[in-house]
Amino acid sequence: MADRSKRQRISRAASTSQVTNNVPPMFGGSQPDARVASDGEPGSFVEGSILRIAMNNFLTYELAVVNPGANLNMIVGANGTGKSSIVCAICLGLAGKTALLGRGDKIGLFVKRGCSRGSIEIELYKNGGNVVINREISTENLSQWTLNGKSCSQKVVEEEVKGLQIQVSNLCQFLPQEKVGEFAKMSRIELLEATEKSVGPPEMYTYHCELKNFRGRERELENTVNEKAAFLERAKQKNESNKLDMNRYYEKKRHLDMIELLEKKKPWVEFEAVRKEHESVKTEREEVKKRLSSLKQTHGPMLKKIQLINNQLEPIEAQIKTKTFDIKEAARKCKARRDQLDRKQKEIDDIKQALNLKHTEKVDEEKRIANTKTIIDDLQKELATVGEQPDVAPRIDAISVELRGHQEERARLDGEKSDIRREKDNMVAESKSVRFENRRLNDMNNMMKAKEDKLKVRHKDTFTAIQWLRQNRQLFSGNVHEPMLLVLNVKDPRFAKYVETHIAFNDLRGFLFEKREDMEAFMKEVRDKLKLRVNSILAPAVSCANKQPSRPIESLKRFGFYSYLREMFDAPTDVVSYLCHQYNVHDVPVGTAQTKAMINKVIEEPYLKLIYTAEERYVVKKSMYSNHVSTNNSQLRPSKFLTISNCERKIKDLDERLAGLRENFSILEGRDNELRNEKKGLLEQKGKKRQLEQKIATKLDSLQQIEKNRVDLKKLEEDTKTKIGAVNAQKVAMMVEVMAQIKLRASLSMLKVHLTLQTLGLTAEKTHLEGSCKDRQVELRTLEDAFTRLDTKKNQLHERCKGLMRSAQTICNMGAAGTVPAELKVAFSTLPDTMEELDALLNEECSRAEGFTGIRENVVEEYNRREVEIQNLEEELGDLSEALTTYRMNMSEAKERWLNPLRTLICQINERFGEYFRSMQCVGEVDLHSEKEEEYDKYGIRIRVKFHNSTELHELTAHHQSGGERSVSTMLYLMALQELNRCPFRVVDEINQGMDPINERRVFNIVVRTACKETTSQYFFITPKLLQDLQYAEEMTVLCIHNGPQMLSPGDWDEKAFLRRIARRKKRTKPE
Asked: Which whole number is the average pLDDT over 111-122?
């Protein structure tokens, strides 16, 4: 690092900010010379450089002041300490948008948590007086700006920053951590615009924008000229064709005039024909009317007599309908009474049936009483023969105790048998799976073939790559190992789940190489040519296969740990070396269920970061700041590739244990049956007398109940006779009603017959009269139809005459009472007087007029109008062509002013970019790319790089290169801009993430060498870590950021006391 004796920077502008008064900075490190020389002139700062950054309640900071140097500023600190907070302060303090940082879209999110307001103050160097910008922010997303102590708007600050050539929105000048990946995603056009703004002359980007606008205006002029010329040509051609149309138009007009004259005479001829027809129809109508009147006078009396008969028939028919309804109603009532009689007869039958059932019950009751008495006598005799028996209760109790003991023993044996059966079922299922797997292994000859088959199903590309490797292994100079799925041999199938859980599947299927050049050649053939998706791994340069664990396993056995992962499998040395280096398998212990039970004590051990119990994986994390311990546990996955188990021996042991249990169970069953039989006999002996007494008492109760409920047949028979008599009385009343309805229906039927005979006589007379009138009626109807038809036709012809008259008067422009004009009479006299001749002449003229098709009515007017347009277009086209020529000359001059300096600038960038890549033994080029020379909005900068000798130059994109390669390319491009830069400072945040150590060291040296030149501007390089033994320069400033619970508050920091302690420590440690 920089020399510790370098004198401390003194800030003479500190009094301009309240933040720096009496508040020592929280940043330590070597600092450059004072930013202002002793004579008052500025030192190495360029106009717009940052002299001071003060933050109050901003993100991670409570109070902090940063005093950067004029050249390279290296800001170093662990993740989370607040490095990127300085980047955010620079962006937001210089009126940058929150979207540029990728952290949040609201300014209130940048206030320190727990506070309501915060502030940023930035002091910028400027000739004639420094610029101090202060921005106060609040959680309500409000901002207050001051410029040099005076309140102002954000627009004023943006104009001031723009005047100092500061562009925080330009990725070539300001590259925050969240936007590092977006640099490679920039298109060629975006990269060109960013470069022009960053390192080009102030007018270069303006010229570029003007050229794009000029080109757009040129296209508009070209399109206008072409459109005008085409329109002029079409107009000329159109007027040439219109001359012929004009002649045809006038000839057609003569035929149309004749058609119009014929159309005017036609209504008059048609009117005269219709008028004559109307007079003829009117005469015929009057004759029919006379004949009809005479016929009606002779036909009237007969019609009146028929009407009189109809009047007599109507009341008689109404009476017949009434009588018919009454007859039906009487029949309905008669049927209803008969149905009631049937139901009463059924009721009598039911009463008799119930009495018969009671007779049957009486007979059964007598039989039951006799049987019960017989049984009671037999039981009393048996009870008399039963003598006194000895007391058997003590023996019964002893047998019950022994049976309970046997029952408990049987329950224990049943439980053990269930456990063994369940374990055996699991073993049988696993055995079937293993036997099926073994059959597959026997078919494929070995275990390796089985693993290959699984891999083929799971990842076909990897299997294809294995086949290619086996055929082309001679192409490689070092060891090349097939995927770990094939070369790892687990010592015990139980260990497989730990190994598969610990190692990522992408590494399990990855090819491991001893040499990098072999890996690159393999990936070029397999990935680039064969288009296979495979993984490749490089073994560590220094073997880690013999790494020892941090503690012997014996010291961990008290927690239940019995082995490290490294001891659970066998593999080639290179594979073991990679797993020890990448996964620390030599230092990851595996425990048992005891470990799970003691997990709270286990995670307190500081040296255990990753452990395994019988079924779970635990990751232990400890905070660097608060020492808080957090754990993350997950269930172990069953092994899919590395396990093959044999359960036959376990099943045999379980069968032997189960047979022993069955034998013991059989002995207990035999003894249990003996005791139960003995107990049963004693109980029967003890309870026989009591049973007999209970049976006798039960039978006596039953006999008493039967006698109590005996049936009284005599009373039942009397009740039955009474019920039947009542029902018969009801039947007699119903029969009387039925007979009355029958008589009523007979009388109504006789009246109906008498009325029907009257109707027949009247109807016969009516029929005779109607037959006599039929012939005269037909003649009368015929005359009426003829009169109606003629009357309608007369009215229609009359209306038609009036319509034709009006039509003729309208066509000839005559009034309602006007006469035909004299000129029309003369013209009509030359035309035919019949409709046939008029139609023939009209059709002839129409045919001739229709022959002139495609002629528009406005052809003459259009021809004259277009002649005027052609003259105007010729004048306008001449003016536009002259303006386009002048515009192209001016644009050519503007192109020279922009393109020549731009090509020179790109050449300078290319020289430095290529030089930096050559110093890293790589190749890089920068050129100006355009598809068409005149398409100025398509110009762009193309960056092409090559990091390996075996590859070609490829354009830098977000997908082709790796993350480290993109970071190197981005950093070197920014370095190529550094010496050409006209911007006052540049910020790059954590761009070295993803670089390998070799490239990171090379890039760092280039950054130090370039950014520390006197001709370059200020540079901020933020990184969380640095490699050892780097080269540093006197001009650079290193700012170390610390954070954590042990940090002193800003008020307790005493910089002078700290420097005194350092000096005393150096003096004590200095050798004699």
From this structure: 91
Burial pattern 377-387, b for ≥16 Cβ within 10 A else e, equals eebeeeeeeee
Per the CB < 8 A criterion, the answer to whether 358 and 711 are in contact is: yes
How many whole angstroms from its chain centre is CA 628?
39
Reference 1040, options 1054, 1056, 1022, 1058; nearest CA is 1022
Kindly state the tokens that stand for 370.
């006799």
Instruction: Give the list of residues 6+ apart from residue 53 with CB closer than 8 angstroms, or none.
Output: 65, 66, 68, 86, 89, 90, 93, 120, 121, 122, 123
894 Cβ contact partners less than 8 Å away, ≥ 6 residues apart = 207, 210, 211, 214
Q: Which residues contact 37 (CB under 8 A, 6 or more apart)?
A: 43
Read off the pLDDT of residues 738-756 as tens digits, 9 standing for 90 and up. Answer: 888 788 878 888 887 888 8
Residue 298 structure tokens: 């002779």
Residue 922 CB coordination number (10 Å):
20
Q: Which two tokens stand for residue 871?
A: 């003259």
Burial class for 166, CB neighbours closer than 10 Å (0-12, 13-18, 19+): buried
Element (H, E) at 64: strand 61-66
Which of 879, 723, 885 has the alpha carbon at shortest distance from 351?
723
For residue 48, the model assigns a pLDDT of 86
Per-residue model confidence as pLDDT tens digits over 972-985: 777 777 666 667 88
Phi, psi of 1012 (to 5 degrees): -100, 10
Residue 132 has a pLDDT of 94
The pTM is what? 0.39
Strand partners, 50: 124
* Distance between CA atoms of residues 449 and 446, nearest Å: 6
Q: What is the DSSP string of 875-928?
A: HHHHHHHHHHHHHHHHHHHHHHHHHHHHHHHHHHHHHHHHHHHHHTT-EEEEEE
Residues 6+ apart with CB under 8 A from 36: 12, 42, 43
Beta strand segments in 747-890, E = none
- Return all residues near 176 (Cβ < 8 A) that are at least 6 apart: 84, 87, 88, 91, 100, 101, 102, 987, 989
CB 553 within 8 A of CB 576: no
Half-sphere CA count of 482, side-chain side, radius 13 A: 20
Q: Are 468 and 525 in contact (CB under 8 A)?
A: yes
Q: What are phi and psi of 194, to 5 degrees?
A: -65, -40
Q: Measured in whole angstroms, how far is the alpha carbon of residue 25 from the centre of its chain?
A: 50
Beta strand 489-490 with 610-612 is unpaired
Q: Count Cβ atoms within 10 A of the Cβ of residue 881 and give its class: 0-12 exposed, 13-18 middle, 19 or more buried.
A: middle
Q: Are 614 and 596 in contact (CB under 8 A)?
A: yes
d(CA 956, CA 934): 25
pLDDT digits (tens, 9 = 90+) for 450-477: 677 777 777 888 889 988 988 998 889 9
Pairing mode, strands 589-590 and 563-564: antiparallel
Distances (CA, A) of 300 to 309, 769, 777, 973: 15, 13, 11, 127
Rounded Cα distance between 45 and 39, Å, is 15
Instruction: Identify the H or E element spanning 453.
Output: helix 447-458
29: part of which helix (H) or strand (E)?
A: none
Which one, of 177, 174, 172, lies nearest residue 191 by Cα?
Answer: 172
End-to-end alpha carbon distance in the chain: 25
Which residue, 968, 942, 909, 899, is CA-closest to 187?
Answer: 942
Of the candidates 1005, 930, 1013, 950, the residue with the CA atom closest to the CA atom of residue 979: 1013
CA distance 505 to 106: 41
Helix (H, G, I), strand (E, B) or coil at 586: helix
Question: CA 286, CA 276: separation in Å to the nearest integer?
Answer: 16
Query: What is the largest distance, in Å, between two alpha-carbon atoms of the chain?
Result: 172
